[in-house]
Amino acid sequence: MQSIFQTVGIVGTGAMGRGIAQMAAQAGSRVRLFDLQPGAADAARAALADTWSKLLAKGRLDAAQQAAYVAQLSPASALGDLSDCDLVVEAIVERLDVKQRLFTDLEAIVNEHAVLATNTSSLSITAIASALKHPQRLAGYHFFNPVPLMRVVEVIAGLKTSAAVCQQLTAYTRQFGHTPVSAQDTPGFIVNHAGRGYGTEALRVAGERVADFATIDRILRDQMGFKLGPFELMDLTALDVSHPVMESIYRQYYDEPRYRPSVITAQRLAGGVVGKKVGEGFYAYDNGTAVVPPEPAIPDVAQLPPVWVSPKAARRPELYQLLKDLGASIETAQAPSAAALILVAPLGLDVTTLAAVERLDPTRTMGIDMMLDDAATKRRVLATNPATRPDMRDAAHALFARDGKAVSVIRDSGGFVTQRVVATIVNIAADMCQQGICTPKDLEVAVTLGLGYPMGPLAMGDRIGPTNVLEILFNMGTVYADPRYRPSPWLRRRGALGLSLMHEEA
Ligand code: NAI
């Protein structure tokens, strides 16, 4: 195979550099490995030879391919040995001054057409390139860990990067079978920016004591199909990695409220309770397995009260059908009887506000999250308000668990859990499109491959309906009077016009 880059230099042969070297060799390039640490390049070559041997043993490679890949790797003893490279990718320490110095040194070594690329995840490409005589030749080339398995690569254009350089890197990425996405040089690029909504909003929900960590995880897994709940995910990534990323992106966007980090993670980080790797995070770990608190038992209720549903409930016909299927006695009069359990199904508002506005008896009023079609979710979520009577809470819990479906009962919250978290994710993604950081299509691909979400954030918004997402955010803005919930113009306009969030202007 003729590679777009015949000879590729890798500087920094740690976890990331090795993975990138593997991809380059598999794309058919000769690969020169350089590391400041003596012996590190040789160790990287040996580790990669071992990786390919394992792939050979699994039948994923043949012997000739394996031998060819190993032969393509050569450790370099000095940076000057990279002079014949037509691409050099850097994966060294994450420090602007060190990276700038490396690229200035490289510029004096490689030929004038060579492309320079940085695997930085948090520094500005423009700032790294600013030290160069020819900043147009440097681009961001952001891989994810572990490189062979995370099949998305962000190609990032700095202010002066030439389009041709980005095109070459994009085409090269396809040669080793990964998916390239294009991003403008902005904090977090695509994946680390789009990922801000999930953890931060879940932390805010937990911070209000709406529900405990395990309940929030269960709700987001079962209602929306996330593989891991936000707290499981933070335990896996570890807070010494994820909290600084939250702070860095927030600060780089000049304290944009949408990205505001949480005191919960700051304090846990300070206390060393950072996650699975230390055996203690949002969950306790026993031999590497999370100790998950059991679900609260379904209350035993001898006689269920009749149920009255607010005329303003979301998906009211579906809620009626569900109540019928559960065998509830449904009241259809204009007002509830004195014995009735009163149900509201708000989008974005809290149960308390609805009880007050609709003049309902709050002691008998509960909320149910009807944002998603009940049949499409594996869990129902009910919310009390501060005045709800325990017998009414228990009756609602027992009723909605009658068919065996999981039920979580949470405290009052504008937007329950899933509405809040999903609307936040959608809004951040919409604003990234508004800012022109990437195309809607690249955003969807980057998030599904880079974060493993069940679908792209714009598709999530389209599934719920852009108008509904807009309503949720407007109402949450009312409940919380917090600018973090103000809708992006991208969402506001598409929601108002009933257009898909993928829609791009002509
Ligand atoms: P690592 O610590 O495993 O490897 C870094 C290597 O660079 C070490 O072998 C070190 O000896 C070498 N090195 C340091 N300064 C050098 C210099 N001036 N010249 C030559 N070699 C030098 O680190 P890792 O995890 O491989 O990350 C490297 C870079 O990749 C960082 O900039 C990081 O931001 C970026 N990155 C890391 C990701 C991750 O999940 N670890 C994900 C995406 C990007």
By CATH, the superfamily of the largest domain comes out as NAD(P)-binding Rossmann-like Domain
CATH class of the largest domain: Alpha Beta
Give the quaternary arrangement of the chains.
Answer: single chain
Number of DSSP E strands: 16
Mean pLDDT: 97
Ligands = 1,4-dihydronicotinamide adenine dinucleotide
Global shape? elongated
- Domain count: 3
Fraction of residues in helices? 40-55%
Query: The biggest beta sheet, please?
Result: 8 strands, mixed
Describe this structure in words.
- The protein starts with 6 loop residues before the first strand and ends in a 9-residue tail after the last helix.
- The protein has 506 residues and is an alpha/beta fold.
- Helix 8 (196-207) crosses helix 10 (230-237), helix 8 packs antiparallel against helix 16 and helix 16 packs across helix 19 (466-480).
- The radius of gyration is 26 Å and the shape is elongated.
- The mean pLDDT is 97.
- The protein folds into three domains: 7-185, NAD(P)-binding Rossmann-like Domain (Rossmann fold, 3-Layer(aba) Sandwich), CATH 3.40.50.720; 193-291, Orthogonal Bundle (N-(1-d-carboxylethyl)-l-norvaline Dehydrogenase, domain 2), CATH 1.10.1040.50; 307-410, Rossmann fold, CATH 3.40.50.
- The protein is 43% helix and 13% strand.
- Helix 13 links the parallel strand 11 (307-309) and strand 12.
- It contains 20 helices and 16 strands.
- An eight-stranded mixed β-sheet has the order 3-2-1-4-5-6-7-8, with helices on both faces. A six-stranded mixed β-sheet has the order 12-11-13-14-15-16, sandwiched between helices. A two-stranded antiparallel sheet has the order 9-10.
- The protein has helices at 15-26, 40-57, 63-72, 96-107, 125-129, 163-175, 191-194, 196-207, 213-224, 230-237, 239-252, 263-270, 316-325, 351-357, 390-400, 418-434, 440-451, 457-464, 466-480, 489-497; strands at 7-11, 30-34, 73-75, 87-90, 115-118, 138-142, 152-157, 179-184, 284-286, 289-291, 307-309, 330-331, 341-344, 365-368, 379-383, 406-410.
- Bound molecules: 1,4-dihydronicotinamide adenine dinucleotide (NAI).
- The site of 1,4-dihydronicotinamide adenine dinucleotide has 23 residues, from helix 1 and helix 4.
